[in-house]
Write the structure tokens for this entry.
Amino acid sequence: MFASNSTPCTDTDGQTCTMAGCDGQGVCDQTHVSNCQQCPNAFTGLNLGAASNFAILGLNGAHLIISEGATKIVGDVGAGPNNTGTLLKSTIVGQLFIDPTAKLDIHSDLTVTGGIVIQDLTQADADARAASMDAAGFTPTQTLGNINSSTTITGSGGLNVISIDSVNLVKQTLTISGSASDIFIFNVTGDYIFNGSQMVLSGGVTANHILWNFPTAGSDIQFFKPVAVAFGTFLAPQRGFIQDHGDLEGAAIAGGTLKFHSAALVNFCPQP
């Protein structure tokens, strides 16, 4: 059930690349960040398969909007099967992968440092959905109900599966405490509103050990205000993800509307 989500290969100069592969030209391509390194914020506690390579991934039928000049995505973006949407006035530090069935309005003021690739993303879609179902099937180790005020969640070492009814935090702090070996899978059934709030990682916990899983249909995940900070991969096959300002140290994979605007930052694969 648990596996690394990277696929190592060796380029012609002997360097090892650990994500999508090697550039085949003698060196690992340092422009295409996903081709050369395991992105530090890629979730490694559960095998997300081909979906693990993306900072943002729109699942089948998603509507993808990335807009406004200060919005920045550090990592690869995937517009999956039958995606629609608009990309403009923002920067993707990585590659933009577009499924052949997607129909996007891409403006000339969009910057994509690694270029645009047309690629079938049905496998990434299937892998994301399977991972969400797997995560939802784990037996909870903690049950927290509704989180409406500053809260500390403490791991017990190893896998922590935490069942949450809803999250609605306004200018509050959510602390995730544990060791570097702790893995946190949060299964959320209700609303998720993170308004001007901050996550804090304590004791060695890292973003690549945190999964926020939304296995059922529901309202869009809301993450907003400039001071908002969140960690982990948000996986919501039947929902949308809306980020207005804020800093997400991780990834967003969703099947509804994915909207990133007003200086939103998604930092999946930080530059060395």
Q: What stands out?
A: Confidence is low (pLDDT under 50) at residues 1-36. Residues 17-267 form one domain. The chain has one domain: 17-267. The helical segments are 122-136.
